[in-house]
Amino acid sequence: MKSWLPIPPRSHFxxxxxxxxxxxxxxxxxxxxxxxxxxxxLDLDAFATGGGFSKAANVSSEHAKAFSQPTPNAFAELxxxxxxxxxxxxxxxxxxxxxxPDVLKDNESLxxxxxxxxxxxxxxxxxxxxxxTDFFAGRNHAHNVGVLFRGPANALQPNYSHLxxxxxxxxxxxxxxxxxxxxxxxxxxxxxxxTEPVFRPCARLDIExxxxxFISKPNDLGSPASVKDADEHIFGYxxxxxxxxxxxxxxxxxxxxxxxxxxxxxxxxAWVVLADALEPFRTKGLENEVQLQKYLQESxxxxxxxxxxxxxxxxxxxxxxxxxxxxxxNLLWSWPQMVAHHSISGCNLCAGDLLGSGTISGDEAGxxxxxxxxxxxxxxxxxxxxxxxxxxxxxxxxxxxxxxYMLFALE
Length: 411
Fold this sequence. Notes:
By secondary structure, the protein is an alpha+beta fold. The protein has two domains: 20-124, SH3 type barrels, CATH 2.30.30; 132-410, Alpha-Beta Complex (Fumarylacetoacetate hydrolase, domain 2), CATH 3.90.850. It has helices at residues 44-49, 61-64, 73-77, 80-94, 108-114, 139-150, 246-252, 335-343, 372-375, 390-394; strands at 20-25, 28-37, 40-43, 115-117, 121-124, 132-135, 166-168, 174-176, 185-188, 198-201, 205-206, 209-215, 234-242, 244-245, 266-268, 273-274, 282-283, 304-305, 308-314, 321-327, 354-356, 404-410.
């Protein structure tokens, strides 16, 4: 798909993408929805106000009013057919041979009002997040954790293959990529074998490479979303880093799980990639050997996404290096199954709710999605970060770092 707007060949924001986010600018401080296209953004509020959707057959004026809101929550709630229609129309608008050149291509006043370089705007959280739930769907990661605590024979808990395990996170501390986070303080055991905790800054701050998903169409309280219809409740996806204070977590997690070890910050990417844009990346998920309950049984086998994921690290001293590579296909549970399980109790999911996949790790060297296994004394699980990186020789000083992490999703 060629565009009349110059788009760099390796741009993440091609016409095949059209991700949604929230921007502000020096001349207009109000937050508003936008899409990314090449090295530019299209201000959807300005575009809609200027009649940009006037030629869209399947996008009504009422639909377009959703872009006057500070976040895409109202747009998300309109449902996937509207998302699909808007994305398709915006692709048409930017095509080199667009059927509607008068809308934007040849409309200088609207281009000036709505189209600007991405370098001129600030990015914000892409949704108003009402609730956040983090799943544990990465089986390789779950197995690795289980080996450390219970040994290989009992690595996975009996319930793991029967339901998507999850816990409720803290929506208030979800932040957009680039937001600095304060190193958390908490109680932790000062040394192996210690029985009394000390109060200190976290000495084992960890990352967790995840994908996040935003809910679009809500379900009513008491009315579960079925697994066959769950795709209609999915707006799109982000990259996610669920920061974890491992030493604090180790002391506090019994019996109810992590608390302060997880509530201080979760970072997500600024742009949400629509579910339709990732349809070509569907693939078969990991095999589940148990007979699932009917409410979790899916009709299609290509139920997860084969998205290549990378983590790079730039320590305060040293060069940036890629420390892990994996794929989003390393999930035992699909997003529709997560939606179905989350709502089967009657829980109502709302537009803008965030669901995390859980840490995504592969089963080979260089594919782990967190540091936990580097910190753990031998015997360790056999998955490691990629060799010959600055991380491999300096991780033991991690408590003194001010590191910068970069998470990437690749074609």
